[in-house]
Write a structure and sequence with these properties.
alpha/beta; three-stranded parallel β-sheet
């Protein structure tokens, strides 16, 4: 067995103090690392969640005994996230800096840093990773959604922030972002699309593609037949109810396809507007928030899961949740969504409302195609998107970075010897040997 490592996860959100997929990914990754014998400390900003949510969270998210969670509580309320958002500095979060610089971590993995502060990337000397769960590094609005009406193809960041009623982040004009990004050894992107977007927007960073995963123990694929115990066949949407998720387009599509039901699982600020739009449509049902167990039943029994997002998604975790139940998908041909379908051949894509209706009718009336796409999606899930391939790649990246740092340290030491002649070097006789010098261990 490899030597257990000491990890630290840093993120604005972590379950149950979270809203979306980034917190769930960190939760799954932390606990999978712990199950493999590593230790994981998690720092998240409780102040930020309470400020944005307005009340304490609900839900139970037990952690492995080797996962320790440290909520950042300042006692300053909204002042803590607001100060960090406006300055890029982790104000009122002194315990974070002390931990990153004093706890001897092997790896510090940064995630959503928007309300913690980008300057935290400079804290500590461990191997540093950063996952681009959103487009926040290149978009102060996080999602490359411009003026609350369209995907962003040409930046107008100041005007967009004002239009979105967000405080303008003037620190982005100071060069702080560029200086802090240099402290990160490797950036991880859940999709090739998101990786390319960061490079297209001018970031000069070392970045690698590492897709999300869904643990096999959290899935069920018992071969439930489409529609399950419901009298009518149904399609399924799962996710937050926001305008950018595109559910309003689904409602109009199912208005024209009354023979099929649409179940909408999730909640959010746009729910009331969607319910008004769907008033009188007997084939559309809003289910609200669902437990994972109930979602598993819905996934397995659906004809297909539809992902209609009209923004640039960074991956589409809902797609692999469907695949884990052998259920095909229909996705909007935008952002990272078609990439997952292309890699799996587990669904259909569309660009227009007419193509969406064609896809719905095709999968509903062709059971052989539906089953083939479902099997393809499941095979790809087993190959690419469960914990085993993800952790293998993740730990391989960590080992490569450790080896590179050791090699750089040895090279720097040899250069110093060549310049001064003041150090005595004992060359390693094999991999894993030692490099020593009077006065203590060499530090990069």
């Amino acid at each position: 067995m490899e030597k257990p490592l000491k990890f630290c996860m840093v993120s604005t959100f972590y379950p149950p103090y979270n809203f979306g997929g980034d917190g769930m990914h960190i939760y799954r990754l932390s606990n999978e690392l712990a199950r493999r014998g590593h230790s994981v400390d998690v720092f998240h900003c409780e102040d930020s969640f309470l400020f944005l949510n307005g009340k304490p969270p609900t839900g139970d998210f037990p952690n492995h005994e080797r996962v320790r969670v440290y909520p950042l509580r300042s006692g300053k309320g909204m002042l803590s996230p607001l100060a960090s958002q406006q300055t890029g500095v982790p104000f009122f979060k002194g315990s974070l800096k002390a931990a990153l610089e004093g706890n001897g971590y092997d790896v510090i993995h940064f995630n959503n840093m928007s309300l913690i502060g980008i300057k935290a990337l400079s804290y500590g000397s461990a191997i540093k990773l950063y996952t681009t769960h959103e487009h926040w590094l290149v978009c102060p609005m996080h999602v490359l959604w411009k003026f609350d009406r369209e995907v962003c193809t040409k930046p107008s960041c100041t005007m967009c922030q004002l239009a979105g009623k967000r405080p303008v982040q003037l620190w982005r004009q100071t060069g702080l972002m560029e200086r802090m990004l240099k402290h990160v050894d490797c950036f991880l992107s859940p999709s090739r699309f998101t990786l390319n977007k960061h490079l297209e927007r001018g970031l000069d960073i070392p970045i690698r593609h590492l897709p999300y995963f869904l643990p096999k123990q959290n899935t069920r694929n018992g071969g439930i037949s489409p529609s399950g115990s419901r009298e009518r066949p149904y399609f399924l949407f799962v996710g937050r109810l926001e305008y950018i998720k595109g559910v309003h387009n689904l409602i109009e599509a199912f208005r024209l396809a009354p023979q099929y039901d649409l179940l909408i699982a999730g909640d959010g600020v746009y729910r009331k507007e969607l319910e008004r739009q769907a008033a009188g449509l007997q084939n559309i049902e809003f289910l609200g928030r669902m437990t994972q167990e109930h979602l598993s039943e819905l996934y397995g029994s659906a004809i297909a899961v539809i992902v209609p997002s009209i923004c640039y998604e960074t991956f589409g975790i809902i797609i692999i949740e469907a695949f884990s139940h052998k259920t095909p998908v229909i996705v909007n041909d935008l952002g990272a969504l078609p990439e997952v379908v292309e890699d799996s051949n587990g669904g259909l894509t569309y660009r227009t409302q007419g193509e969406l209706l064609d896809a719905i009718r095709t999968i509903a009336t062709n059971s052989e195609l539906r089953d083939t796409l479902g099997r393809n999606g499941y095979s790809a899930y087993i190959k690419y998107w469960n914990e085993e391939p993800h952790l293998d790649q993740y730990l391989k990246i960590v080992r490569e970075l450790q080896d590179r740092r050791r090699a750089d340290g040895q090279a720097e030491t040899r250069k110093h010897v060549s310049r001064t002649g003041s150090l005595i070097i004992r060359e390693p006789s094999s991999v894993g040997g030692e490099v020593s010098a009077p006065g203590g261990a060499f530090k990069r």
